[in-house]
Amino acid sequence: MARLFTGPRGGRITTAVLRDATHWDEVVTGLGYTHLRRHSLGHTGLTWMADAGVPVHVRQKITGHGSLTTTQLYLHPDERSIENAGQALSAHLGASWGCRWAPNGPQAATGLDQ
After folding, report:
1. Residues whose CB falls within 8 Å of the CB of residue 18, separated by 6 or more in sequence, listed in order
2. Spatial contact of 17 and 7, defined as CB atoms under 8 Å apart
3. Which of the four pLDDT bands, split at 50, 70 and 90, describes residue 75?
């Protein structure tokens, strides 16, 4: 499989290559973000890929992880993604069951309290 991005010798881009090519340490220190780590870029990239709908088996292949469990550990959904998931579930359940969920619970939406 051909790599989308390659290191200076055509191989895998390691965090050391990334550090040297981008002057990472100097940049994050200059910005005052010394807590940022190059490894975190993998977490961010995989989370963005998941948000974009890239299947988990493709993400696993991209990373070279031996298991899907390892790939899943890299995902960090934001609050908006979690809220969207809840709204999608509510919409699905409402369509499936012919009701809608209301802020005061299912009774307010279905008329069960009448």
Report:
1. 24, 38, 41
2. yes
3. confident
Query: Is 71 within 8 Å of 61 (Cβ atoms)?
Result: no
- Tell me: do 90 and 70 sit in the same domain: no
Q: Are residues 60 and 82 in the same domain?
A: no
Residues 28 and 55 in one domain: no
Model pLDDT for residues 28-61, shown as the tens digit of each residue: 899 998 888 877 888 888 889 988 999 999 999 8
Whether this prediction's pTM lies above 0.70 is answered by: no
Q: Distance from first CA to last CA of the chain, Å, rounded? A: 62
Domain residues for 99?
77-114
* Domains held by the chain: number: 3
